Amino acid sequence: MMVDINKIDYCIEPELPRKMDYKIGIIGAGFIVQDCHLKAYSDIGFNPYAIASLTWEKCKKVADRYQIPNAYKTWKELVDDENVEILDIAIPPDKQLEIVRYAVTKSYIKGILCQKPLAMNLEEAKEIVKLCKKAGIKLGVNSNMRYDQSIRALKTILEKGYLGKPILATIDMRAIPHWQTFL
Fold first, then answer.
1. Do residue 120 and residue 49 come from a single domain?
2. Which of 1, 81, 129, 133 makes the best surface tag, with the fewest CB within 10 Å?
C-alpha cells in the first residue's frame, strides 16, 4: 500500500477529558512536579488545587509559584481534603502504597496518578491495582514519553498498517523535553 505521508493524520493531539476542572491534589514538590507536572497542568488548563511535600518551605514555594490555593504540611491532610478529586502521587515508589491504601478509603477521590515504578515489587504493585479497582478509582502510572506526540504518531502509523506487519521494532528517542534544553 502506497501512502502519501503528507496526507496522514498522525493523531498527535492529546485526548482530553470532557471535564477539565477536577481538583488535583499533588503529593510531592520535587523537580518533576515543579518543572514537568505543574507546567503541563498549566499549559493544558488543568486545576492544581492542593499540594503537600516533605518540606513545608518547598511546598509553600511551589504553591506560590503556581498559585496553588491549598498547601498542606502532610500528605494525609491533603488526602483528607474532601475537595480533592484526583491525586498526583509524585514521590518515591517505596511510599506510594501507603498513600494509595489511605486514599482509596476516601469516596471523593476519583483518580490516582502514581509515578513509575509503581511499587518496590510486583506484589505491592498488584495490591495498588486491586485497591484502586475495588474502590472504583481510576489508576494511572506516569511513564515517560508515553503520550508524547512522537509516540502517538507511531501508534497511528502502526495501527493503520502503513508500515505493513511489524516483525521487530525498537524506539530511539531523540526528543528534547522543555526541561532538558541542555540536550
1. yes
2. 1
One domain for residues 150 and 120: no
Residue at 26: amino acid letter: I
For 73-128, write each residue's pLDDT tens digit. 999 999 999 999 999 999 999 999 999 999 999 999 999 999 888 999 999 999 99
Residue 161 pLDDT > 70: yes
Encode burial over 40-59: b for 16+ CB neighbours within 10 A, e otherwise: ebeeeebebbbbbbeeeebb
Number of structural domains in the chain: 2
Note whether 161 and 136 are same-domain residues.
no
Q: Are 59 and 68 in contact (CB under 8 A)?
A: no
User: 108 or 35: which carries more pLDDT confidence?
Assistant: 108
Count CB-CB contacts under 10 A for residue 34: 18
Give domain status of residue 75, yes or no.
yes
Domain carrying residue 108: 23-142
Angle subtended at Cα 115 by Cα 66 and Cα 43, rounded to the nearest 5 degrees: 35
Residue type, 52: A
Examine the domain organization and report whether 78 and 132 are in the same domain: yes
Distance CA 179, CA 9 (A): 28
